[in-house]
Amino acid sequence: SAKLATIEEIAAALTGARKDNKTGYRGVSYLAARKKFIGRVTVDLKTYSVGSFDTPQAAYAAVLAEEARIR
């Protein structure tokens, strides 16, 4: 039988970065004090930090890998 998607899974699949996201990548923010890009993943209302990176692309790659690992 096919697994039904949750509302959170549907929303994650349909949405990219928010309009006010300055990095352009979902799950990636910039920490000016450390001059690093931070990756975070939220699944079932739990937030997982995936680390800090020098580029937003590296942070987003880590976000995608962590999402795949968790789901």
Question: Brief description of this entry?
Answer:
With 71 residues, the protein is α+β, with helices and mostly antiparallel strands. The chain has two helices and three strands. Strands 1-2-3 form a three-stranded antiparallel beta sheet, with helices on one face.
Which stretches are poorly predicted, pLDDT < 50 over at least 5 residues? none
Structural class comes to alpha+beta
Helical content class? 25-40%
- Terminal CA distance: 18 Å
Shape: elongated
Order of strands, main sheet, comes to: 1-2-3
Strand-residue fraction? 25-35%
Strand segment tally: 3
Secondary-structure element pattern, one letter each:
HEEEH
Largest sheet: 3 strands, antiparallel
Rg over CA atoms: 13 Å
The oligomeric state of the chains shown is single chain
Structural summary, described in words:
The protein has 71 residues and is of the alpha+beta class. Helix content is 32%, strand content 28%. It has a three-stranded antiparallel β-sheet with strand order 1-2-3, covered by helices on one side. Strand 1 and strand 2 form a beta hairpin. The protein is elongated. 15% of the residues are buried. The mean pLDDT is 87.
